[in-house]
């Protein structure tokens, strides 16, 4: 997943599915998962969020070390637009 010139590695689908499951099983009541690219580590990381508006806040404070890649609803698995 996310095979582009901007990211040196791809995200394996089984890892993505594990992240979705982990977010759904959390007691925190997460509804969304934002995937960011860690520039220095050259890897992807999930950030779990309760509210959709939180996605915009994380994207707004992102910097050159963490690049927002995509956001998903944990339950419908549909992609959510990044502002």
Key phrases:
83 residues, alpha+beta, 4-stranded antiparallel sheet, 2 helices, 28% helix, 29% strand
* Unreliable stretches: none
Largest sheet, strands/sense/barrel: 4 strands, antiparallel
Give the overall form. Answer: globular
Question: How many DSSP helices?
Answer: 2
Q: Could you estimate the helical fraction of the residues in percent?
A: 25-40%
Tally of discrete structural domains: 1
Provide the gyration radius in Å. Answer: 12 Å
**Number of DSSP strands?**
4
Proportion in β-strands = 25-35%
Strand order of the largest sheet: 2-1-3-4
Q: How far apart are the termini? A: 21 Å
Give the H and E element order: HEEHEE
Helix/strand-derived category reads alpha+beta
State mean pLDDT (0 to 100 scale): 88
What is the gist of this entry?
With 83 residues, the chain is of the alpha+beta class. The protein has helices at 13-25, 52-61; strands spanning 32-38, 43-49, 66-73, 79-80. It has a 4-stranded antiparallel β-sheet with strand order 2-1-3-4.
Describe the protein's architecture and organization:
Helices cover 28% and strands 29% of the residues. A hairpin with a 4-residue loop joins strand 1 (32-38) and strand 2 (43-49). It has one domain. It is an alpha+beta fold. It has a four-stranded antiparallel beta sheet with strand order 2-1-3-4. The longest helix has 13 residues, at 13-25. It contains two helices and four strands; from the N terminus they run H-E-E-H-E-E. The relative contact order is 0.22.
């Amino acid at each position: 997943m996310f095979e582009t010139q901007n990211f040196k590695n791809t995200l394996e689908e089984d890892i993505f599915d594990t992240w979705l499951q982990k977010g759904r099983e959390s007691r925190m009541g997460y509804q969304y998962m934002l995937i960011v690219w860690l520039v220095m580590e050259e890897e992807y990381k999930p950030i779990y969020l309760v509210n959709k508006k939180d996605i915009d806040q994380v994207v707004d404070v992102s910097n050159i070390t963490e690049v927002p890649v995509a956001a998903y609803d944990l339950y419908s698995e549909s992609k959510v637009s990044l502002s």
